[in-house]
Write a structure and sequence with these properties.
The protein contains 9 helices and 2 strands; from the N terminus they run H-H-H-H-E-E-H-H-H-H-H. It has 276 residues and is mainly α. It is globular, with a radius of gyration of 22 Å.
Length: 276
């Protein structure tokens, strides 16, 4: 799945699971208003985190260089790539999700008063990833730094200081990323470092044969290749949902109001018999 699509699916997932209105499930208590917005921003960035395993990946260049030194995002991606075994290995597995969650748990402990310091640090990095994936970094080197610092400050003030909320947001974002990749023909080595190959002849089994390849990757490639028309359609649906959920959370739209509108027969009766 393409980077921008990972990001919007992360936003949609966060609002669907943690939203407080009738268009959301509300199974995660992330608060409302600014607190929910900061949670959604964190999940959006974390939905790109598994791709931070290659120093030449798009998000590795999300923060510009400072003089002759490599950019901070490139350094981070190099480190993650070496630890995870290279591109599309450990970070796209169950153990990868666990590692990111463990890191988030450590950062979640960094608090000062009502300020979520650890969440702000991770928010800064994840925001720079999201801006790059959504092509919002702009042509000026100061822009990704400025926007990432602004979001980090917002997260530090508004993010729930419960130390378990940060790992929850990061774990959710990573899981959404992996599910998205598993829905494409690339699939994911979710059992890494174990890479069990499909048994001989397994590929000939209808439907199931396409869900396990000879490299030890698993999935359900209903979207076809990454960047397919099906993927674009799905992400347009996600985008529409994000707009609906965000406007509903902000009180700009009330889906329940449609249920109170008079039916056509009532309107017709009112026009033909205005005295009732």
């Amino acid at each position: 799945m393409m980077g921008g699509h990972h990001a919007i699916s992360g936003t949609a997932g966060a609002l669907a699971l943690a939203g407080t209105t009738g268009v959301s499930l509300g199974v995660i208590d992330a608060g409302s208003g600014m607190s929910l917005a900061s949670f959604a921003a964190m999940v959006t960035g974390a939905a790109l985190l598994p791709d931070a395993d290659h120093h030449n990946a798009t998000i590795a260049h999300s923060l510009p260089k400072l003089g002759p030194l490599p950019s901070p995002s490139e350094i981070i991606c190099r480190m993650i790539g070496k630890i995870s075994g290279g591109h599309r290995h450990g970070t796209h597995s169950i153990i990868g999700i666990a590692a990111f969650v463990a890191l988030a748990m450590l950062l979640g402990q960094l608090r000062y008063g009502g300020l979520a310091i650890g969440a702000a640090i991770m928010g800064f990095v994840l925001t720079s990833f999201a801006l790059k994936a959504l092509k919002l970094s702009g042509p000026f080197s100061v822009l990704p730094w400025g926007l990432s610092l602004a979001v980090a400050g917002f997260v530090m003030k508004e993010f729930d200081t419960d130390p378990f909320m940060l790992p929850l947001a990061v774990g959710l974002g990573c899981a959404i990323h992996i599910v998205g990749d598993m829905a494409t023909t690339d699939m994911c080595p979710i059992l890494y470092p174990l890479n069990p190959k499909a048994p001989k002849g397994f590929e000939h089994i209808p439907v199931l044969g396409s869900c396990w390849d000879d490299k030890g990757s698993f999935g359900f490639p209903i979207l076809g290749n990454a960047g397919s028309i099906r993927e674009w359609i799905l992400c347009l649906v996600f985008t529409g949902y994000v707009v609906l959920a965000a406007t509903t959370e902000a009180g700009l739209f009330d889906p329940g109001a449609w249920a109170t509108l008079p039916h056509f027969d009532e309107i017709k009766t009112g026009l033909t018999d205005p005295l009732g």
